[in-house]
Recover the amino acids of this structure.
C-alpha cells in the first residue's frame, strides 16, 4: 500500500451506473439464493390467503369466478407486503446499509437494483404462480392472460412503493405492522386498475387502457420511488 | 478536516458542546471517553452518517455538506457493526465493497486477506467465522483502500494481541504516508509523534 | 447550518426562529379566534335558518355546510402538512417540522368529521349509513394516510428523525393522492358532481352557496386557530430548556 496514497485512484474505470446496478443486483440475487427457504414463504402465503377465501365464503364456482380477480390481486398484494419488511433490515442490522450510504455511489441506482432483485425473487414468482391459483378459483380462461399481464406490470410498482415504507421503518423494532399501515393505502390504485383489468378481460373488453395506466404508474414509480427510498434510508440510519 | 463549535445532544443530554479540533495530514486522533460519552455519535457525525448536530465541519477547507461526494471517496469508515454479510464469503464481501467504493483496490484482496489472517477462509460463508474474524474481514479493507481518511470505531474489539499489534503498525504507516486516522479505542496506542488525544469526558457539558 | 445559501426573503428565515414564531402567532391568534367565531356563527345560523331547502333532499342537505368544509379542509391540511414537511427536510427548519406535526391530528379530526357527516347524510339520501361512493372512499384512504403519518411519527423516538421520516411519507402520499383520487373515482362514481369549485360557477343558487363559502372560510380560520395553538405548545415543549421560555414561564 506504500505508493497508493499519492496516486489518484481511477474512479471512472468500470464504475458506470450500469455496472454498479449489476453489481448490486448480482449481490442481492446471490443473497436471496443463499436463503432459498425465505423465498418460498411469500409464495406459500400467497397460496394460503387465496385458499382461505373459498373456505371462508363459499366454494361455489360461479361466486368464486366472480371474485377471483380481486382475490388473486389482494393475495398478491399482501404477500408482496409480507416480504417487504426484510428488504433493508438485514443490511441495517449488520452495518452494510451504513457502508452503502457512505459510498460515493448514487443511492438512486442502489435502491433501484435492490428493488429489482426483490421483484425478481418475489413479484415474478408470484406472477408465475397466479394462474394456478386462478384455476383453483375458477377464473374464466379469458381473464388468465390479463391476470398475468397486470401482475407483471403491477407487482414491480408494489415492490417500489413497499420499499419506501421498508426504508422508513428499517430502524424500528416493530416495523412490520407499521409498514403495512404506511404502505397499504398507497397500494389502492394498483389494486383497482389491476383487478378491474382482469374483470374487463373476462367480460371481453379491451384491457390495453388498464395496462397503459399500470405501465404509467410503474414508470412514475421507477423515477420517483428510488429518490424517496434513498432519502428515507439516510434518515433512518441517522436516527 | 476542521471541526468547529460542534454541539450534540441526545435524549435531553448534552454529549458535547463547543467541540473543536483540526486534523492534518499524517495525524492520528484518538477519541477517548467513558461508555456513553458520545464517541460513536461523534464518529458517526464526522463520517456524515448523522446530521443531529449543530456546528461546522470542513473537509479540505470546504463545508462538508457541499463536498459530500468527494468526502465519501476519501473516507473509509469502520463502524460498530462490521458491515459484513454473514451469508457471503469474505471474498464476496470485499468484492462488493470494491464495487461500491472506488478507492478500494480489488487487486490487493489476496494480500489483504493474508494480512488479516483469513488466508484459507476466502470461500467460507462468514456466518461460520468467529466474531473477531468477522471484524477482520471488514478491516481487510484497510489494506486495500487508497482513501486518505480513516474513521475507525473500536477497531481492536475482539481482535487478538498479534492482530492489534499489526493494526497499530498499519495505522502508523498510514499516518507516515500522509493519511489521517480518527479512532476510538480503549487500548493504549504507541504511535509516538503522530498521536493526539481528545477526551470527551472533560468536554461534556452540563 | 452555515453552508446554507441565503436566497429566500428575510421573513422566511425569521419564521425559522421558534421564538419569533411564538411571538407572531401570539399576536395573530386573537384576530383569527374572532374571525372564526364570527364566520362560523353567521354561517351556521344562515345555513340552518335562512338558506332554502333543497328541492330533492329537503332539509337533510343542510349537513353539507359541515361536510363540504370539513372535506376541503382535510385535503388542504394534508397538502400543508406535506409542504411544511418538505420545507423542514430541505432547510432543516424546526418550525416547519412543528407545523407538519401539528397538522396531522387536525387533519385526522376533520377527515373523521367529513366521513361521519357523509355517513349521516347518506342515511336519508341513499338509505344506508355507508356507501362505497368514490369521494367517501377517497376520504377514507386520506384518513388512512394521515393515520400512517401519525403512526410513523410516534414510532420514532428521536424527534428530528421522526419529523423527517414523516415528511418523506407525507410527500409520497401527496404524489399519490391525485392518483388515488382518480383511480377511486374511475372505480365508482355514484356521487353527485363536486358541490363547490373555485373555477366554475357553482350549480347551486347563490342563497345556498354563499353561506357555504362563509362556512368554508370559517373552517379555515378555525383551522388556523387550532394549528397556531398546537404550534405554540410544541414550541414551548421543545424549547423548554431555552432561556426565553424559562424566563417567560418563571415570570408569569
Amino acid at each position: 500500500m506504500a505508493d497508493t496514497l499519492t496516486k489518484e485512484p481511477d474512479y471512472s474505470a468500470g464504475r458506470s451506473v450500469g455496472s454498479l446496478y449489476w453489481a448490486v443486483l448480482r449481490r442481492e440475487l446471490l443473497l436471496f439464493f443463499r436463503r432459498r427457504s425465505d423465498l418460498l414463504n411469500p409464495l406459500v402465503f400467497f397460496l394460503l390467503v387465496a385458499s382461505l377465501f373459498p373456505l371462508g365464503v363459499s366454494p361455489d364456482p360461479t361466486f368464486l369466478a366472480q371474485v377471483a380477480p380481486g382475490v388473486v390481486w389482494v393475495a398478491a398484494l399482501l404477500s408482496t407486503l409480507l416480504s417487504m419488511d426484510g428488504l433493508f433490515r438485514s443490511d441495517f442490522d449488520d452495518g452494510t446499509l451504513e457502508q452503502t450510504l457512505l459510498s460515493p455511489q448514487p443511492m438512486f441506482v442502489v435502491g433501484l437494483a435492490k428493488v429489482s432483485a426483490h421483484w425478481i425473487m418475489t413479484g415474478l414468482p408470484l406472477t408465475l404462480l397466479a394462474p394456478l391459483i386462478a384455476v383453483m378459483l375458477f377464473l374464466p380462461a379469458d381473464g388468465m392472460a390479463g391476470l398475468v399481464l397486470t401482475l407483471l406490470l403491477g407487482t414491480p410498482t408494489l415492490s417500489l412503493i413497499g420499499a419506501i415504507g421498508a426504508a422508513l421503518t428499517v430502524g424500528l423494532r416493530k416495523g412490520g405492522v407499521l409498514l403495512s399501515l404506511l404502505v397499504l393505502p398507497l397500494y389502492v390504485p394498483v389494486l383497482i386498475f389491476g383487478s378491474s383489468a382482469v374483470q374487463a378481460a373476462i367480460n371481453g373488453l379491451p384491457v390495453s387502457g388498464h395496462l397503459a395506466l399500470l405501465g404509467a404508474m410503474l414508470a412514475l414509480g421507477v423515477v420517483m420511488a428510488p429518490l424517496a427510498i434513498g432519502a428515507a434510508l439516510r434518515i433512518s440510519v441517522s436516527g | 478536516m476542521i471541526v468547529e463549535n460542534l454541539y450534540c445532544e441526545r435524549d435531553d443530554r448534552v454529549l458535547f458542546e463547543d467541540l473543536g479540533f483540526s486534523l492534518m495530514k499524517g495525524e492520528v486522533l484518538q477519541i477517548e471517553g467513558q461508555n456513553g460519552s458520545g464517541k460513536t455519535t461523534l464518529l458517526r457525525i464526522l463520517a456524515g452518517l448523522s446530521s443531529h448536530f449543530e456546528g461546522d465541519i470542513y473537509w479540505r477547507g470546504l463545508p462538508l455538506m457541499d463536498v459530500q461526494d468527494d468526502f465519501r471517496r476519501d473516507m473509509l469508515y469502520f463502524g460498530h457493526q462490521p458491515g459484513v454479510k454473514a451469508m457471503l464469503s469474505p471474498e464476496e464481501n470485499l468484492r462488493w465493497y470494491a464495487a461500491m467504493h472506488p478507492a478500494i483496490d480489488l487487486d490487493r484482496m489476496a494480500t489483504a486477506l493474508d494480512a488479516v489472517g483469513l488466508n484459507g477462509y476466502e470461500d467460507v460463508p462468514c456466518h461460520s467465522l468467529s466474531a473477531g474474524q468477522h471484524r477482520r474481514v471488514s478491516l481487510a479493507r484497510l489494506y486495500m483502500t487508497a482513501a486518505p481518511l480513516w474513521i475507525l470505531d473500536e477497531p481492536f474489539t475482539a481482535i487478538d494481541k498479534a492482530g492489534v499489534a499489526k493494526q497499530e503498525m498499519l495505522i502508523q504507516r498510514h499516518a507516515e504516508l500522509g493519511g489521517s486516522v480518527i479512532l476510538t479505542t480503549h487500548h493504549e496506542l504507541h504511535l509516538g509523534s503522530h498521536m493526539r488525544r481528545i477526551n470527551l469526558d472533560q468536554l461534556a457539558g452540563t | 447550518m452555515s453552508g446554507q445559501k441565503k436566497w429566500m426573503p428575510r421573513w422566511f428565515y425569521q419564521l425559522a426562529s421558534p421564538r419569533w414564531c411564538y411571538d407572531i402567532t401570539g399576536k395573530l391568534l386573537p384576530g383569527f379566534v374572532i374571525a372564526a367565531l364570527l364566520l362560523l356563527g353567521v354561517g351556521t345560523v344562515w345555513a340552518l335558518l335562512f338558506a332554502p331547502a333543497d328541492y330533492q333532499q329537503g332539509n337533510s342537505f343542510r349537513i353539507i355546510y359541515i361536510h363540504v368544509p370539513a372535506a376541503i379542509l382535510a385535503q388542504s391540511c394534508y397538502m400543508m402538512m406535506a409542504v411544511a414537511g418538505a420545507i423542514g427536510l430541505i432547510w432543516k427548519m424546526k418550525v416547519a417540522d412543528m407545523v407538519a406535526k401539528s397538522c396531522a391530528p387536525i387533519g385526522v379530526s376533520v377527515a373523521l368529521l367529513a366521513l361521519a357527516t357523509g355517513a349521516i347524510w347518506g342515511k336519508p339520501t341513499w338509505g344506508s349509513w355507508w356507501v362505497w361512493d368514490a369521494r367517501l372512499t377517497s376520504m377514507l384512504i386520506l384518513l388512512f394516510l394521515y393515520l400512517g403519518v401519525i403512526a410513523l411519527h410516534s414510532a420514532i423516538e428521536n424527534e428530528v428523525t421522526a419529523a423527517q421520516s414523516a415528511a418523506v411519507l407525507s410527500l409520497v402520499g401527496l404524489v399519490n393522492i391525485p392518483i388515488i383520487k382518480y383511480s377511486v373515482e374511475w372505480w365508482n362514481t355514484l356521487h353527485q358532481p363536486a358541490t363547490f369549485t373555485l373555477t366554475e360557477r357553482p350549480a347551486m343558487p347563490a342563497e345556498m352557496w354563499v353561506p357555504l363559502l362563509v362556512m368554508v372560510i370559517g373552517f379555515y380560520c378555525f383551522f388556523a386557530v387550532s394549528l397556531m395553538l398546537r404550534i405554540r405548545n410544541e414550541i414551548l415543549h421543545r424549547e423548554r430548556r431555552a432561556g426565553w421560555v424559562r424566563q417567560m414561564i418563571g415570570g408569569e
